[in-house]
Amino acid sequence: MSTTTVVHLLRHGEVHNPDGILYGRLPEFHLSENGAEMAALAADWFAGRDIAALYSSPLDRAKETAGAVADEFGLAVRFDERLIEAGNTFQGMSLSSRSVRDPQVLRRLYNPFRPSWGEPYSRIVARMVDAIKVVRKEAWGREAVCVSHQLPIWMARRAAEQKRLWHRPDRRQCNLASVTSLTFEDQKLVSVGYTEPAAALYRGKGPLVPGA
């Protein structure tokens, strides 16, 4: 008999970011009121599931999202640097249509396949896979939640589905407070699922949020 284990990759909720900063790994970017509601809806979606472990990126928006799940299950949140947002050289900037024509910006856009403006996709996959393996082992035969960010989750999914890593950012299926579920039979991945528990709160927001 094989053992079924599910690792859920939960993206954090909406961030309070009135200036439209690409916040990346910067501190002090917290959930908005709408984002806190999103986190609560995601926690409600997990209710009744056999959640045995809860991990989170150490960034504020992820910690606050994980807190809603922790309250639902009475679990402690463990912080793992491998779940952190992707590194990005544009961190701290506001990338308006005007700024992307700036030579200082354009010079970083020469290789979209790596990508040249941030942490290599292959490196993101490697750290996410390492984290997922650790969490899967801990939650063996049960389920676990890892709170992370849009690009790391999307990279983990594309690798799981054996797809090329380079992609169009506007086509990522990883919306705010969404859940990407990896189901394993023993150590073999058998399915990838996706759901959006907070879809009612998107208010027209697309899947791509700067610094997500």
TrEMBL record:
<dbReference type="InterPro" id="IPR029033">
    <property type="entry name" value="His_PPase_superfam"/>
</dbReference>
<dbReference type="GO" id="GO:0005737">
    <property type="term" value="C:cytoplasm"/>
</dbReference>
<dbReference type="GO" id="GO:0016791">
    <property type="term" value="F:phosphatase activity"/>
</dbReference>
<dbReference type="InterPro" id="IPR013078">
    <property type="entry name" value="His_Pase_superF_clade-1"/>
</dbReference>
<dbReference type="Pfam" id="PF00300">
    <property type="entry name" value="His_Phos_1"/>
</dbReference>
<keyword id="KW-0378">Hydrolase</keyword>
<dbReference type="InterPro" id="IPR050275">
    <property type="entry name" value="PGM_Phosphatase"/>
</dbReference>
<protein>
    <submittedName>
        <fullName>Phosphoserine phosphatase 1</fullName>
        <ecNumber>3.1.3.3</ecNumber>
    </submittedName>
</protein>
